[in-house]
Design goal:
single chain, two-stranded antiparallel ribbon, 2 strands, 57% helix
């Protein structure tokens, strides 16, 4: 994969988010902004809405995520796993409220799901970015060198009830990044089939 290819679905995405491999800090900032903006736009379109992101708040979220994940020390010098990194990223994207403007597409009819999305845009988008990262890393060993996987991961959904229950929780309660980490891990845990089975992966077609 080319170094300059901007996508959430690459093995070194967290390193790119931190700025590794860039000669100028501004390049890391722009790479992160483009990557997250694409995901947020995609999520909004799937709810027949559109949005705009604050570049300032988005960069604040990146730097706070970078600071916090840099402090984590799991079993010595072990790098935090993708669940934890995704949990911290979703936390700061939501905490900084990076979406500054949003509306429904005027050409489309209103729906209950769209109304719920409009009430929790920042929460839904932040949570789904983290979820998509977790799905990608959980099935990375199965991924071929082709483009279809990105489209499949974009299509993943948890169902309206769970999606908006999580969004409401994030909106009205002080959900920590560690709690988000546990939520993501739980979504991939099947108690009936030890060792751990990635049940959410069945949603990826």
């Amino acid at each position: 994969m080319p170094d300059d290819f901007i996508t959430l679905y690459r093995p070194d995405v967290f390193e790119r988010f931190r700025g590794d491999g860039f000669t100028e800090p501004a390049d890391a900032k722009q790479w992160f902004a483009s990557c997250i903006a694409f995901q947020y736009d995609d999520i909004a379109k799937r709810h027949l809405c559109e949005l705009r992101i604050s570049p300032t708040r988005l960069e604040e979220a990146r730097l706070l995520w970078k600071r916090d994940t840099g402090r984590i020390d799991i079993l010595g010098d072990t790098i935090p796993d993708h669940f934890k990194q995704a949990g911290f990223l979703a936390y700061w994207l939501r905490r900084r409220m990076v979406v500054g403007w949003w509306q429904r597409n005027l050409v489309d009819h209103a729906s209950e799901e769209q109304d719920k999305f409009l009430l929790s845009v920042n929460e839904v988008c932040a949570f789904f970015v983290g979820l998509r990262l977790c799905v990608y890393f959980e099935m990375k060993s199965q991924i071929d060198e082709n483009d279809h996987i990105g489209h499949a991961l974009q299509d993943i959904n948890l169902g309206s009830d769970l999606k908006f229950d999580v969004a409401t929780l994030l909106k009205h309660k002080n959900v920590s990044p560690h709690a988000l980490y546990l939520i993501y891990r739980t979504l991939f845990y099947d108690l009936s089939k030890p060792p751990r089975k990635a049940t959410v992966l069945s949603l990826v077609r």
